[in-house]
Amino acid sequence: MTTKFLLDESRIPTHWYNLQADLPEPLPAVLNPATHEPVTPADLEPLFPASLIEQEVTTEREVPIPEPVREVYRQWRPAPLYRAHALEKALGTPARIYYKYEGVSPAGSHKPNSAIPQAFFNHEAGIRRLTTETGAGQWGTSLSYAGALMDMDVQVFQVRVSYNQKPYRRAVMETYGARCIASPSNETEFGRSVLADTPDHTGSLGIAISEAVELAAQDPGTKYALGSVLNHVLLHQTVIGQETMEQMAMAGDSPDVIVGCTGGGSNFAGFAFPFIGQSLRGGESPRVVAVEPSSCPTLTRGQYAYDYGDTAKMTPLTRMHTLGSGFTPPGFHAGGLRYHGMAPLVSHAKQLGLFEAVAYPQKACFEAGILFARNEGIVPAPEANHAVRGAIDEAIRCREEGSAETILFNLCGHGHFDMAAYTSYFAGELSDHEYSDEELAMALSGLPSV
Amino acid sequence: MTTKFLLDESRIPTHWYNLQADLPEPLPAVLNPATHEPVTPADLEPLFPASLIEQEVTTEREVPIPEPVREVYRQWRPAPLYRAHALEKALGTPARIYYKYEGVSPAGSHKPNSAIPQAFFNHEAGIRRLTTETGAGQWGTSLSYAGALMDMDVQVFQVRVSYNQKPYRRAVMETYGARCIASPSNETEFGRSVLADTPDHTGSLGIAISEAVELAAQDPGTKYALGSVLNHVLLHQTVIGQETMEQMAMAGDSPDVIVGCTGGGSNFAGFAFPFIGQSLRGGESPRVVAVEPSSCPTLTRGQYAYDYGDTAKMTPLTRMHTLGSGFTPPGFHAGGLRYHGMAPLVSHAKQLGLFEAVAYPQKACFEAGILFARNEGIVPAPEANHAVRGAIDEAIRCREEGSAETILFNLCGHGHFDMAAYTSYFAGELSDHEYSDEELAMALSGLPSV
Prior knowledge:
The structure is a homodimer.
Chain A: E1 3-5, E2 15-17, H1 41-44, H2 50-57, E3 62-64, H3 67-73, E4 81-83, H4 85-91, E5 96-101, H5 112-124, E6 129-134, H6 138-150, E7 153-159, H7 160-165, H8 167-175, E8 179-183, H9 189-197, H10 205-218, E9 222-224, H11 231-237, H12 239-250, E10 257-261, H13 266-280, E11 287-293, H14 298-301, E12 303-308, E13 317-322, H15 344-351, E14 356-360, H16 362-376, H17 382-401, E15 406-411, H18 419-426, H19 437-444
Parallel strand pairs in A: 5-15, 6-7, 6-9, 7-8, 10-11, 10-15, 11-14
Antiparallel strand pairs in A: 1-4, 2-3, 4-5, 12-13
């Protein structure tokens, strides 16, 4: 039995929800890496248009969604909410399980929720070109899609090892008309300096960020776009949670537990923040659980400290849960969710005790995703498998406790682009990596003293 | 601007539409390959359950869709209809272009429309296992998905060369719990005989069909499932066209031209037959255009004759447009649509002059798909690119004629699983192949004399 809760498209949210308005304590300042003084909007102007900088710093509860952005959202939004009857039955749980499904976007994930407005606000500011970095390619794909629809040139620096290993993602970006360049490249000073030193360098996200930022900073017609971490990116994603709240009301149910996966934090925040805000304003207070990979355990084993956003230490310093900007996740990790830090707003909410966090090894997550696919018919992205694992474990707890709770999770994308990870799983090629305390301490020893 | 026409899920059709009820001349008989006498339902019983055989031969106009099948359809149906405003603008055409989008299914294409009922009717008949063949993997994926939801074992014989070259498709099938076997295999007598002769045989669709059929015929608990060509498969796909008719009414518009792509014929028939039936019953009569690859030009250059459905000449003889069962499309052709024959019902409708057919080389189709993606945001499957090309060329004709016609096409699937084909296109590795008359005549010289 399929129970799908679909909102009419007139119900696409008209505003993004800003958790900052409801926080009991304000977000710690972002610091200039040279002076350690709080950054000013002017510091950010070489990289972002004024409208997005305003969204980055505003504490207004509601930020209006421009009508042209809602128009594009209408291509796939409101996204469906499903009741997972078959999964419940397979688990023999008394719990009711619901999932919001963001894989219906043309890019197959939640990422366009922010790529579209970022392209829109840049275009409105007269910017003609966006630069960004991408690892596996999910964000690069989404920004390329947004660029095609919003008539912007997009230049994506893709980590060279992914560029070589994952030509299909690049093909998607090129189909959308974006330029995808292997990083380190000869197109930036920083890229050339890396290549001069190590001609066969396989690249890193840190280097790719540095190249994308360098290009944007040089040319007034070019800005930089980031797919997670920043406040305005999290803000854009709150369409997910807002729709879900209305759909849960349609279902005549309300969640006891909310589960999302975390990498940089954008899908988790977009899904959970509207619920956390409701709770902070005195409404219903479900438990909120963030699930992260135990091979990159930012929230569960990281330190809450000021750190750089990139490996090259060029970005402002933000207070966040971090494993140290020099942290490198294990060489072969199938999913995304590999960022060394965590969105400052997510980190702050964690510090305030507004949600819990758990970490899972990747094989247990693939196992959960496969059980989900066989019962619910959708093959989740490897990242989304972490949320599936978290939801299933909550449902198993309900079974053991005989507790008929309502579990709600976000399925942030489908796995159609990522079947190589499943192939590796079935071939027994994936391994789980748990860092020792010593290893983590070593990566953290390089934190800047602020 | 996005204009999406979404039906409420109560509007999922309650019946499949059977074109046979409205045809001015009945479909020619299917012949037993040994006796050349018409086949009886009993001849088909080793392979299909009675309910599907009944659907294969019925001339009733409406065949009820069982409620459990509609329940599964609800996971993604009704599928959206879009107005392609951005594409219209890019083409500078006065035409209005609409497209139905079947890529929203969990398998990414229209194929589950038939996979789900085939699994359901087999399950209802007490069958525990389905066998099938697959080339690139679109149908194998869909039947595996259906098997997972309907609690059936699925065994897919995948042409060995695809099995080796496309491990991701296999991973999808395995994620759904299906067994995917490289064909020729050691699991059937026929497979063993092929391997005994040629140990490194790369396989063919014909061999894979023979293996799947052999396994089904041997075991009373196992039946065979086919993803196109047969009447009951086309029947199941008519949910596409029925929904589209209602959505066009929502849009307050009606098509002057309808475009679909043809391989075996199932997505074309499912989309176009409800419109053709309406026309045959005295209603509106849009032009209907079938688009096929010029490298496998069944409808445009094939012969309308009795032929075998498989290369091994084991299947019944059907009257259809065929290039000869020995015809082999060029070694590297990126899309699907490679079947040597055409669905008998589609062929018969063509013979009756109920639609037109055109053929396009594959590079022109990729070019069209890329233009579509950059304007409409969805990356089409290589097969679907043929329909996109056909629709774009109709829109260009409208521009040249200054004619504000309404063009409607079926976008039968997304290309997320098939980005390797785009990679080849961008790398300049695709070539167009046009057969000479002599080459085609040679393939046709082997037609059985009936």
